[in-house]
Amino acid sequence: MEDITYHVVKETDYKRILELYRAAGWWEMDDDPRHHEKVAKIVQNTFCFVIAKIGEEIVGMGRAISDGHSDAYLQDITVDKAHRGKGIGKGIVRRLVSFLKDNKMQWIGLISEPGYEKFYNELGFSEMKGYTPFLLK
Question: What does the pLDDT look like over 91-120, one tens digit per residue?
Answer without folding.
Answer: 999 999 999 999 999 999 999 989 999 999
